[in-house]
Amino acid sequence: MNEVKIMEQKVNVRQVTGKQLLGTARHHAVVTDRPTEENGTDVGCTSGELLLLAIGSCGMAGLRRLFESKNMPYRDFSVDVFFEPHDVPQQRDRIVMSINMNHDLSDVDFDAIRTAAISGGVTSRMLLGSEMDIRIARN
């Protein structure tokens, strides 16, 4: 029986200066910041934009797996992920993933596409409402 090794996923985020933060994951680094109109220097994405990028990347991976398994062409497709204001005041924005396809949609199983788009680790955790625990550690 083959065991699948699950990679530990951990990131570190530190303040650089002002509203700039440096995030590291394994050997990769990314700077987040706020737009200039929010007193940032706009040298990086906001945290919300990084969240949307993670969701979009995860959704694209699930869609690619589906298209490959069905021998469907998947070039020229993309996803747009955005926050949409909720209909009810004081409710958090909903997250919308819009799938853009340059493909004849007459033979497309839309339920399979929706399922694939939310099948990855990030999207499924979001939908399942993963618990979040805050722990305070001394440096």
Summed up:
The chain is α+β, with helices and mostly antiparallel strands and 139 residues long. Helix content is 28%, strand content 24%.
List the helices and strands and how they pair.
Elements (H helix, E strand, L loop, with lengths): L10 E7 L2 E6 L2 E5 L14 H23 L7 E8 L9 E8 L8 H8 L3 H8 L11
Antiparallel strand pairs: 1-2, 2-3, 4-5
Question: Would you give an account of this structure?
Answer:
The protein has 139 residues and is of the alpha+beta class. It has two domains: 10-44; 46-128, GMP Synthetase, Chain A, domain 3, CATH 3.30.300. The protein has helices at 47-69, 110-117, 121-128, and strands at 11-17, 20-25, 28-32, 77-84, 94-101. The strands form two sheets. The chain has a three-stranded antiparallel sheet with strand order 1-2-3, with no helix packed on it. A two-stranded antiparallel sheet has the order 4-5. Helix 1 (47-69) crosses helix 2 (110-117). It starts with 10 loop residues before the first strand and ends in an 11-residue tail after the last helix.
